[in-house]
Write the structure tokens for this entry.
Amino acid sequence: MKEKMNLTALEKSWILYDVGNSAFILLVSTLIPIYFNSLATAAGVHEDLYLSYWGYAGSLATVLVALLGPVCGTLADRKMKKTFFLLALLLGAAGCAALGLAPGWFSFLGIFILARVGYSSSLVFYDSMLPEISKDARMDKVSSLGYAFGYIGSVIPFILCLILVLMPGTFGLTQGSAMVIAFLITAAWWIGCTVPLLRRYHQTAFVTAQNSRLLDSFRQLG
């Protein structure tokens, strides 16, 4: 019989970040495309056109993440990892909250791209923390728990958002205002779940280098 693994407070905090950011991804895969379609339709944009733009936005976000990945990877090895992590988190969470404030469908796409870039960039710094947080023999287990609890925990804010969006009249809201609140709930959940990690994590390993130019990040890929 396997001995039960007791997680440290820092490991639990690391797992909790997955619970937070997974709420954003769940929203991205469900309500956000529907809301974007409603914005574009209300603006009189033809379905073929706004679907194309939605695809372009996703592709652009992917390209930006691919370009920034090596840079973030190098920064994650240097000092101030937590600072860079916080900046990426704030970009993602602020972008999520701002989605409901977009004045139109095109600006909505721009904010969405920034939120996706912030989310993906934060994961680079987040993943690089694990070797400092957990021992080698425990890392796979801790990582798996983060993945599992991320999916489970993200359902909590999603259910709240879904209730608001499906029954806005019950709460005296319009469909649009319900979506605004849903974005705010998700952003607040994301940030709230990150606070324990920001409080407990202190970087213990880093690489010092004389040359810190961004081009070095890409040279390391060679």
Remarks:
- Residues 47-77 form the longest helix (31 residues).
- The chain has a mean pLDDT of 90.
- The chain has one domain: 9-204.
